[in-house]
UniProtKB/TrEMBL annotation:
Family: Belongs to the phosphate acetyltransferase and butyryltransferase family.
Residue intervals of the Phosphate acetyl/butaryl transferase domain: 80-294
PANTHER family (alphabetical): PHOSPHATE ACETYLTRANSFERASE
Any one Gene Ontology molecular-function term assigned to this protein's record: acyltransferase activity
The protein's name in its UniProt record: Bifunctional enoyl-CoA hydratase/phosphate acetyltransferase
Domain of life (superkingdom): Bacteria
Annotated keywords: Acyltransferase, Transferase
Pfam families the record matches: PTA_PTB
Entries under Gene3D superfamilies matching the protein: Isopropylmalate Dehydrogenase (3.40.718.10)
Amino acid sequence: MFRSLGEVIEKLKAYPPMRLCVAQAADTLVLEAVRDAAQQYLAVPILVGEKNKILQEAEKIGFSLEDVEILDCPGPEAPMVAVKLVYEKKADVFMKGMVETSAFLKAVLAPDFGLRKGMLLSHLAAMEVPSLERVIFITDGGINIAPTLEEKAAILQNAVDAVRALGYEEPKAAVLAVVENISTKMQATLDAAILSKMAQRGQITGAVVDGPLALDNALVPQAAVHKKIQSPVAGKADIILAPEILTANTLAKSISFLAGGHMAGVVVGARVPVVLSSRADSAYSKLASIALACLIKRGEEEC
């Protein structure tokens, strides 16, 4: 169990650096994170995009690119050029730079050389929360807008697989709803109950799953005790599966911008983890996202 994103970064230092391919790297915050990852021997960067702009942005932060590989191409072509490197196994992890998310994901899903492996792609946010003594994982606040029950099962399995790759033997997953009681008037509670049963029957594997659980009794032991909830997950959840994108996105951003927390974000379910952080995220959050993706990749290789 990680207590902070700093622990994720420290754990990665025990491994050789991975090859990090950055699509349209001409962005100061992205380059700050890439510089820090390179200086801490977490990653070997490969920068893709408009070379002159990349050099200009790097100069602003004192980042020498003398020994860094740069593939010069027009900005709009950068995602496709970068994803081909990963597809051809010339890079290990793929990162979004200064490019629209839609164009970035279009490259990830390209039919000829994209990174799809038949599973649903989903976003996983690792959150460092000041009021908790552990990192929690929230999904899906970035890809799937209003997932069906079947899509929720795939999103949850993606999250479980990624968290297990990080070293969690059997993570605890809470399926979020407003209340912990099942109500036919609230679809989220019905889906949560079904997902919990699916996990019991082996249709979702690798985690202890329970729901519906409200946010407080999913994360805070005292809240679960107060409501007399008997559950191996209540108060101890590692993974929070939100009912739709708005809930997950708002929860993650509230932790980051209102509660003094930090977020690392990746896309999971592809051939390799994909670093997909918000353009408003700090350089530290982007560095943590790089470390998270690289550590997931390491864990997948060791499985």
